[in-house]
Amino acid sequence: MSEFVVYSHPGSPFGRSVMATLEEKGAPFRLARLAPKSPEHLALHPFGRIPIFDHGDFRLYETQAILRYLDSVLPNPPLTPADPRRAARMDQVMNINDWYLFQGVGNVIIFHRVVGPRVMGTAPDEDAIRAAMPKAHTVFDELARLLGTQPFFAGDAISLADLMIAPQMAFFALTPEWSELTASHANLVTWLANMQARPSMQATTWERLTEVAQAA
Question: What count of other Cβ atoms lies within 10 Å of the Cβ of residue 88?
Fold first, then answer.
């Protein structure tokens, strides 16, 4: 089979979703780093986002598209439920990740608490974080409701939804806001702990992927 190449940054939660999915599938891949918004980057992705994915001569961007492609070309173990309702729930949670958990919440709180200080040496903007918290509570409340007492978001088995949400939540768990956002959502705390214990998540931490990229 042709080589899988993931163009990303070791700290990208979206890139981590792709690489964790490849790990779940037992598929080797190569991490290729890009300078953000560089000519090389924009030549691969006209909107300047990551990840970008190559499988032989086939190139793809947008994380959900990449994950669904991987689940199709690497069918075992399956990461999309066979039951239509569970599959629809998976899709719903994946879209919550993109439109509500990341937009206006993760890209504010995680950026100011984790990414900015670690990558650019900036101090958190406390006003921006406070302004993002009402939406963050709405998102966390809804994710906790959808998870309920299930072990995973689409039921009894891990799905693409879990692999999209977990990298974002792992960042939130590094912030002081985590305890407030999960104060009444023990199910999310347990779910994240179980996800982070998986070999696929342990193999794709920021620190581990930095080592991989440096060794390449």
Answer: 12
Q: Could you tell me the residue range of the domain that residue 28 belongs to?
A: 4-78+201-215
| String of DSSP letters for 26-79 | T---EEEE--TT-HHHHHH-TT--S-EEEETTEEEESHHHHHHHHHHHS-SS--
* Pair type for strands 4-8 and 52-55: antiparallel
Q: Is 12 helix (H, G, I), strand (E, B) or coil?
A: coil
Beta carbons of 48 and 41 less than 8 angstroms apart = yes
Instruction: State whether 93 and 195 are in the same domain.
Output: yes
For residue range 140-166, list pLDDT tens digits in order.
Answer: 999 999 999 999 999 999 999 999 999
At 43, list the tokens: 């030549």
- Counting the structural domains of the chain, the total is 2
Report the CATH number that the domain containing residue 70 is assigned in CATH: 3.40.30.10
pLDDT tens profile 43-76: 999 999 999 999 999 999 999 999 999 999 999 9
Letter string b/e over residues 59-77, b meaning 16 or more CB atoms within 10 A of that residue's CB: ebbbbbebbbbbbeebeee
Give the predicted TM-score (pTM) of the model.
0.96
Are 194 and 206 in the same domain?
no
Q: What is the pLDDT of residue 213?
A: 79
